[in-house]
Amino acid sequence: MTPGPLIIVGGREDKHDEKTILRELVRRCDGGKLVVATVASDVAEDVWKDYEKVFHELGVKDVVHLDVNSIEEARDPEHLKLIEGAALVYFTGGDQLKITTRLGGTPLLDKIMELHNAGAVIAGTSAGASVMSATMLTGGENDDSHKVGNWMMAPGLGLTKEMIIDQHFAQRGRIGRLLGAVALNPGLLCVGIDEDTSIIVTETGFEVFGSNAVYILDGREVLKTNITEAPRDSIMTIYGVKLHVLGHGDVFDFGMRQPLIEGSQAQAQMQVQAEKNGSAQASAH
Fold first, then answer.
1. Where are the beta strands (DSSP E) in 145-259?
2. CATH numbers and ranges of domains, the chain
3. What is the pTM of this model?
4. Do residues 107 and 75 touch, judged by C-beta distance below 8 A?
5. How far is CA 282 from the centre of its chain?
6. What's the CA gap between 192 and 166, in Å, rounded?
7. Are the CB atoms for 28 and 281 separated by under 8 Å?
């Protein structure tokens, strides 16, 4: 069976007006159980109440709260019962390290992966977006992120192995730290997602969905960087990075490592595959 799509959101998705991204989550849920996982948050109950309200307003009848505050809690069999049969699991914001340290190596994470491989959608916003990748950014902020020694990275959940994800991208001026991620991981695509913007990821690529932009840095043709040789407080240099900026409806192909031109045969094939994935997901639930 084809794994379900990932919906990776750059944070601060609209909860009050059009609710475009949240409506898409509800559509993908297709009447099934929607799990709100507040594992990353220090104010889990407040976050849950906000999402519970908006998802009920959007017509979801079966929405449940996955609240895990420690790795011991993640091993509670009651949590496995809670998420059984979920059509969509949505990781909210906070601290992505809390997700990996509280869920890593537990039957609960195994179950989430099992659901995903059986066709369920896994989604995440802000910290819940960064944790999707196999390698995730955990630090290196704004004005200081152009320095050689100012990046912190850790293993993520590994739901996507092609990309490193950053979020709140333009709004928090994170181009510097994403360039650092490229310098450290030139074989991966480094993707910055603006607020109220998402990418819908399948095995072949992703489509941009939302009100702002997605930025893709590709280091495959990097000529030189000083990130491993220069002192930690030096300015980082890097030559030859390729940059793409995509908006709503644009499609990026993993195999070609480039956006698809509207109307191209490759884009048409990707759209057909996305529709097949949607049909398989509906059949599974």
1. 152-155, 163-167, 189-193, 197-201, 205-210, 214-218, 224-225, 238-239, 242-246, 251-253, 258-259
2. 6-284 (3.40.50.880)
3. 0.90
4. yes
5. 22
6. 5
7. yes
